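Supplementary Methods, section 5.1.

A reviewer requested that the exact input to the structure prediction be made available. We therefore reproduce it here, unchanged from the version used in the analyses.
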Amino acid sequence: MNSSYFSTPPVVKNLIIINCLAFLGAYLIPSLNQLLGQYGALYWFGSPYYHSYQFVTYMFLHGGLEHLFFNMFALWMFGRTLEYALGSKRFLIYYMVCGVGAALVQMGVAGLTGEFGIQLVGASGAVMGLLLAFGVLWPNSVIMLLFPPIPLKAKWFVIIYAVIELWMGTTGRQAGVAHFAHVGGMLWGLALLYYWRRRGILRF
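The structure derived from this sequence is encoded token-by-token as follows.
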């Protein structure tokens, strides 16, 4: 097997390292955990804990080991191919736009529904943007699902996942999960991809 299959480009590697270090530091040092939760998570605009920089810092905090693992696994799985295709600089721009955009959508929904106790953490919104980009750029690539273990073309996987996230968000299923942030990351990612295509930066 080609060893490059398992290679990890610099931005993906550093994003994973930062996320893991933040989680490890919070786990080992209770005082740091409190500080990160108070100042790093994204709070509602009117909260005394809200700061504008939290639209970035929230992406590097996670609520548990399972949350971290699945986000980092997806970042590694889809992010490597995307970084090699887009280049490191454009990949980082894309990742951050999806992450910030996901938070904006979740905050907008919170404002409409009156859920002002929002405390958003996790890279899921940015990662969903990566999944969307993979499905757009390589729609016929086959993804092997874990549950159930069946192969599925990337384009169908993205569509099904987006519909499920939207349904779970509108019905209130799985409380505590920011489903609209996931959808928001996909929407901002799609908009950026088509903007780049119109500018002639990207072809698909």
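The chain has a mean pLDDT of 92. These observations are discussed further in the main text.
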